[in-house]
Amino acid sequence: MAAVHFLIIIIIIILIPFALSASETESLLRLKQSFTNADTSLSSWIPNVSPCGNWIGVVCFKNIITGLHLSDLGLSGKIDIDALMQIPGLRTISFVNNSFSGPMPEFNKLGAIKAIYLTDNQFSGPIPLEFFSQLGSLKKVWFSNNKFSGNIPDSLNELDFLKELHLENNEFSGKIPSLKQQLTSFSVSNNKLEGMIPENLVSYGANSFTGNEKLCGKPLDRACEYYTLPTEGEGRVYLTGFGIKVILILVFGVIAALVFLSLKNKNQPKHDFSIISRSNSSIHGDQVVQVHVPSSKNSKFSENKSKKGSSHGEHKSESKRASSTRGGSMGDLVMVNDEKGVFGLGDLMKAAAEVLGNGGLGSAYKAAMANGLSVVVKRMREMNKIGRDVFDAEMRQFGRIKHPNILTPLAYHYRREEKLFVTEYMPKGSLLYVLHGDRGTCHADLNWPTRLKIVKGIARGCGFLYTEFSNYELPHGNLKSSNIMLSDDYEPLLSEYAFYPLINPSAVQSMFAYKTSDYTEYQKVSQKTDVYCLGIIILEIITGKFPSQYHSNGKGGIDVVQWVFNAISERREEELIDPELKNDTNSLNKMLQLLQIGAACIESNPEQRITMKEAIRRIEEMQV
Ligand SMILES: *[C@@H]1O[C@H](CO)[C@@H](O)[C@H](O)[C@H]1NC(C)=O
User: Fold this and answer.
1) Alpha-carbon radius of gyration of the chain
2) Which GO-annotated molecular functions does the record name (predicted)?
3) Helix axes 448-468, 612-621, angle to 10 degrees
């Protein structure tokens, strides 16, 4: 064993310096140079040390730099975009909560970027109207809490993949462009926007628009008065009616007006707006609580904790202080999502604990805390390949995930030799348990509509992961029924997703993706491997049988893959259906249809297997 580790260390030492091109390291150092005060906050950014896993805020996937998460570092100065352009794998940039100011940097030169987070800075001035035209991959735009002004660029409409748009708490003015995308998260609240809210944005709800005094129409309570429009049409009549002289006069008029306005602006800066901005800022103050601001620092939570004021709370901050004096190797929990409340390591220690099981990557416990919240704590021992800062950045990214079919982690605890992951406890337990565990009691609920609902939910969760982690080789990687939790109404929630880049190379084989034929026969996992795993789950749900694939030695359970292939080739598919479902004869055809989808997912040649997208499409098409 020791010899194996030693070998891996040697391989890592030999390979790492060559894996990253020297020019990327240099580019990052140039970027650092462009900041004015990075000496302490980016002290880990030093030459001759590989950025991946060593430099704070540099996120890598397989030794390729994919993200820069430079939040909360007090940085200011310039952002050297030309340096960033030398990092071709870069997809995510976060400068959340720093002190950058001045006009919008030319991020639009980074054509492949998927997410830009600039929340909580001092950027100001208008965003060029064509800014988004070159950014076709962009999915997440967080520009909230800055001082951007001018119109919201229409070019946002060119972003086919846009999912999250946050422009709240700025000084944007003019009308809101009518955005055609279906966004999962959107706000333009607390700006100086005006006019009627475009019809296709109405569904986002009033909170997305409040704090804009001149905005009207649904979903706000303020009905639109007559003050919009007419001028445009009239102008055009003039032009066609009076010929070239009138055009010239108009052009002169416009120029004169522009010159006049710009002079006026210079001389009396923003005089006209002073009243609006004063009242705005009071609105701003009230509503800041409602605005979802990503990335919260630890300190904020410990503040919250002590605010609770019970002796309980005091004890917590005490224990935190005590532990942090021990050289930081044994810090408190770090909350990454506080929607279920805030707690500390002390609360976990005092909780009634129960062993839930031992999965491939570590063991899991249930902890019922005194505040009524029950959580699952997973101990991961095979996750020490990345440094604390990178780990923290990843966990915070997980903590921001909001999807009905994804289990968002609440907190983590970092120690070099092991990590703890804390998620909410679901009383129903995992799909594995509900299907094969103590079936006597809850069995009646597992009728066909419920099972289809579960499959659809899993597909939606996968769809989310395949968008969110689309550049990962295995966006889930450990997809199996024991990693799918069920809510009270049988809504499935995926867990243990997207761990692949975090797990030690020596331990990846304990992930379920590595137990499939993709790896055992072809020695190669890919995004299609998750599809295979999804297929196993579908078959597990329809047959009600425990797949032998889940046992590493193949003993116990039924080889669902072989069974399904045989039954289909011999045209006796009906035998596969769980006997418990068979009395629902009206739905038999649907069950067989889902069975076919499952079978397409376990096609043994990954090349011929359907893609995740196709699998999701076919599942979504199914009616109950
Ligand atoms: C913002 O960053 C500073 C450090 O530069 C930190 O002290 C502060 O807590 C951060 N604020 C939030 C809301 O995270």
Assistant:
1) 28
2) ATP binding; protein kinase activity
3) 150
pLDDT means over runs of 10, the chain (624 residues): 37 38 85 90 88 88 87 92 90 94 94 92 94 90 96 92 94 92 91 91 90 90 59 32 37 44 38 25 24 28 35 36 33 87 86 75 84 89 82 90 94 87 90 75 75 96 94 91 92 93 82 86 90 96 90 73 89 90 90 95 93 96 87
**pTM score, two decimals?**
0.50
Ligand 1 in reach of 72 Cβ (< 6 A)? yes
Q: Is 37 near ligand 1, meaning CB less than 6 Å away?
A: no
CA of 172 to the centre of ligand 1 (A): 25
Assigned CATH topology for domain 438-624:
Transferase(Phosphotransferase); domain 1 (1.10.510)
CATH superfamily of the 269-425 domain: Phosphorylase Kinase; domain 1 (3.30.200.20)
Place of tokens 């296709």: 200
Q: Where are the domains of the chain?
A: 2-230, 269-425, 438-624
Q: For residue 507, give Cα distances in angstroms to 399, 499, 553.
A: 24, 11, 17
Cβ 74 under 6 angstroms from ligand 1: yes
Kindly state the DSSP code that residue 355 receives in the 8-state scheme. Answer: E
